[in-house]
Amino acid sequence: MDIRFWGTRGSIPAPGPLTFEYGGNTTCVEIMLASGHRVVIDAGTGMRLLGDHLRSVGDPVSFHLLLTHNHWDHLIGLPFFAPIYDEDTEVVVDGWPHAFQALTRVFDDHMGNGFFPVAFDQLKARIDFLNHVARGPINLDGVTIDSIPLNHPQGGLGYRLREGETSFVFITDNELSAGGGRRLREFAQFAKGCDLLIHDAQYLPEELKDHRGWGHSTYEEAVTLALQAGVRSLLLTHHDPGRSDAQVRQIVERARKMAAAEGGGSLQIDAAQEGSSLHLP
Ligand SMILES: [Zn+2]
Ligand SMILES: [Zn+2]
């Protein structure tokens, strides 16, 4: 499984010199399965760059798009994903059931309203919605994809992909401390023993009191989850739009110190970085 980050920012794009290293585009992650099939998680603004990349390769574009939820920072990249204007593009959308309808509303509504000049049904690509993964595990070329409901306003889904012995868990826009953290054990069970956990770490612990109920976590909570789940590596994501590269680096340092102090010295921790890629053997 090969994973590439096209967008790692939370809430709203945050371009500029202060976010150059970790990137300013919102959530979009590309996963290449061993079969060569492509899965994309979320259609944030990073999806524009993925589209330009796929166009430059020149092959017909076909992939699964797993949507975590229906907030705009996870959907607004699709109108700028160039391959949706090509007839030979095929997109199978699955994920949070309300997200597909929300995705169609990003476009024009035929009434001259809407948020984009083109209507969804005018797109040349074939775009189908399966409402499968929210109802139970799905199998894609031998890869099992499970989902878990998130603690987030209006709901959402996290995902686990298993390919042979390799597992990867992607959970963004999730408030681990919601309800006093009563679902932490459930999330730990979901991520148990995975090779890579990517989790929302938008806030600092000292910021959380002003953002309770907003549906996000701190790096401390993400580390606690990673240690409880016994994962091999943790990548923090959904970086706050106001967070500079230097501040993201500080968060990584603090997270590593916390893990070492709690006996998790072997846990690898970093921050997800736009443009970076990694291979899970
Ligand atoms: Zn978000
Ligand atoms: Zn959200």
What does it look like?
- This protein has about 280 residues and is α/β, with parallel strands linked by helices.
- Helices cover about 20% and strands about 25% of the residues.
- The protein has six helices and 14 strands.
- Helix 4 crosses helix 5 (about 220-230).
- The longest helix has 17 residues, at about 245-260.
- The chain binds zinc ion (2 copies).
- The site of one zinc ion has 5 residues, from loops.
- One zinc ion binds near residues 71, 152 and 173.
Instruction: Report helical residue fraction.
Output: 10-25%
State the strand order across the main sheet: 6-5-4-3-2-1-14
Shape: globular
CATH superfamily: Ribonuclease Z/Hydroxyacylglutathione hydrolase-like
User: CATH architecture, please?
Assistant: 4-Layer Sandwich
Name the CATH class: Alpha Beta
- Give the ligands present: zinc ion
By DSSP (H or I, 4+ residues per run), the number of helices equals 6
Structure in a nutshell:
This protein has 281 residues and is an alpha/beta fold. Helices cover 21% and strands 25% of the residues. The radius of gyration is 18 Å and the shape is globular.
Fold topology:
Layout: E1 2-7, E2 28-32, E3 38-41, H1 47-57, E4 62-67, E5 90-95, H2 97-104, E6 126-129, E7 138-140, E8 143-149, E9 157-163, E10 166-171, H3 178-181, H4 184-191, E11 196-200, H5 219-229, E12 233-237, H6 245-261, E13 268-271, E14 277-279
Parallel strand pairs: 3-4, 4-5, 5-6, 10-11, 11-12, 12-13
Antiparallel strand pairs: 1-2, 1-14, 2-3, 7-8, 8-9, 9-10
Helix pairs in contact: 4-5, 5-6
List keywords for this structure.
Metallo-beta-lactamase, Chain A; 281 residues; seven-stranded mixed β-sheet; 21% helix; binds zinc ion; alpha/beta
